């Protein structure tokens, strides 16, 4: 989910309900009307936030569990689809590790 703020977001922000927001892809910009703005992506992660939970939440942004299982089952017959999935998961790992 895309979000905006006038303040630099924390990497993880406890929501007080057993979950946290994990914020990533933060882009800083400035506008005449609003001044400094931070635009970023955000996913909900169950506490305690771990590397594995961040990856799972990021993957779910693009692939449901059913879609992911389908891609994995057909990895040999739909190699291009699997390669795109694999590349996306690897990018999620990099984001989660930042």
Structural account:
With 98 residues, the chain is an alpha+beta fold. It folds into two domains: 1-47, no CATH class; 50-98, no CATH class. It is 39% helix and 33% strand. The chain has three helices and four strands, in the order ββββααα. It has helices at residues 51-60, 65-73, 79-97, and strands spanning 2-5, 12-14, 19-31, 35-46. A four-stranded antiparallel beta sheet has the order 1-4-3-2, covered by helices on one side. A hairpin with a 3-residue loop joins strand 3 (19-31) and strand 4 (35-46).
Summarize this structure briefly:
It is built from three helices and four strands; from the N terminus they run ββββααα. It is of the alpha+beta class. It has two domains: 47 residues, no CATH class; 49 residues, no CATH class.
Helix residue percentage: 25-40%
- The N- and C-terminal alpha carbons lie at a distance of 19 Å
Q: What ranges have pLDDT less than 50 throughout 5 or more consecutive residues?
A: none
Give the beta-strand count.
4
- Structural class by secondary-structure content: alpha+beta
What is the N-to-C order of secondary-structure elements (H for helix, E for strand)?
EEEEHHH
Shape, principal axes of CA atoms:
globular
Strand line-up across the major sheet:
1-4-3-2
Number of domains: 2
């Amino acid at each position: 989910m895309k979000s905006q703020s006038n303040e630099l977001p924390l990497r993880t922000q406890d929501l007080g309900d057993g979950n946290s927001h994990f914020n990533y892809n933060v882009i800083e910009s400035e506008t005449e009307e609003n001044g400094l703005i931070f635009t970023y992506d955000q996913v909900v992660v169950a506490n305690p936030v771990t590397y594995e939970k961040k990856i799972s939440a990021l993957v779910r942004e693009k692939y449901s569990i059913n879609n992911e299982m389908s891609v994995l089952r057909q990895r040999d017959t739909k190699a291009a689809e699997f390669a795109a999935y694999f590349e996306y998961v690897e990018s999620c790992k990099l984001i989660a590790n930042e």
